[in-house]
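Cross-check.
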Amino acid sequence: MAIRFELVKKCPSTGARAGILHTPHGSFPTPLFMPVGTQASVKAVSSEELRELGADIILSNTYHLYLRPGHELIARAGGLHRFMNWERGILTDSGGYQVFSLGTLRKITEDGVAFRSHVDGSKHFLTPEKAIEIQTALGADIIMAFDECIPYPAEYEYVRASTERTTRWAQRCLKAKTRSDQGLFGIVQGGMYKELRTQSVRDLISLDFPGYAIGGLSVGEPTTLMYEILDHTVPQLPETKPRYLMGVGTPDALVEGVKSGIDMFDCVFPTRVARNGTAMTLSGRLVVKNAEYANDFRPIDPNCGCPVCRNYSRAYIRHLLKSGEILGLRLTTLHNLYFLFEFMRRMRRAIIEDRFLAFRDEFLQRQGEQ
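Predicted model, tokenized:
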């Protein structure tokens, strides 16, 4: 199998677990966070910098790369790894979330989704087979089945019909897959209805994917409901395969996701807030561009070992941000990515050393201390 999961240690009191995810481009410790490189680039950061910060797997987007520069061009370049000079892991999502977020610009049928490009208004039709064709050309290590990301709130009958269609699309994706060096993950849907989540899990497990993602969460529902659905769903997934929670990347959600038994996460959050002048710390978010830091010559986080905190002050970074200098948002981005990679490394050590709950309690107590 292209993708294999090795369980190293499990928390005796929770679902948290440490493992190793084996891929064609390396073996990586879990739990892990994947930064989002939507268009074959994590915004403002080079591949060399990502390696130095400690990134293992990055996520790129099928929908965006299909529209530009086109999957055929990337295939001619030797695939996404060579195209963007990244020799470690890559996961590509199916494009489902982006297509379904287009709202009135798309129409769902059993065959697939007709939509208009947000770039130039051109018409396209994305099917499960087309999503696999694009991801095959991109050459990612992990590819995702085509699904509908169900909005919140949604009526039961709508969610039921959508979830059943997602299962049928998953079967079509499996049939369309051709490369043995790619692992295809199924995506659990079911909205906020526990019985539909259970049915989705059962249907996908019967198809024997090498990994399973949980989609349709962090789409506007209350955080407590997201955790409730996670706690219901994750224990039903196979222990021998990786579990991926899509679109989640705040530290509190990472901790709770790991507590439920999640191994992989992705989110635009750390890079997006960085571009707005917000830095992440164990004590909460620090809005560097605020006036209170104009004469603050301390690093963003005195306890952080990232290149930014070793070399630059809050006052300097604030000056760059207020002046519109690109370096300012680059520095906050580098810091935030390093912070999350280190956060996941610390969480993994805590699991291995049987102190995950203590780690979680200490983290929750520190939030808001800034």
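The chain has 15 helices and 16 strands. The CA atoms of residues 7 and 19 lie 4 Å apart. Passed to J.P. for a second look.
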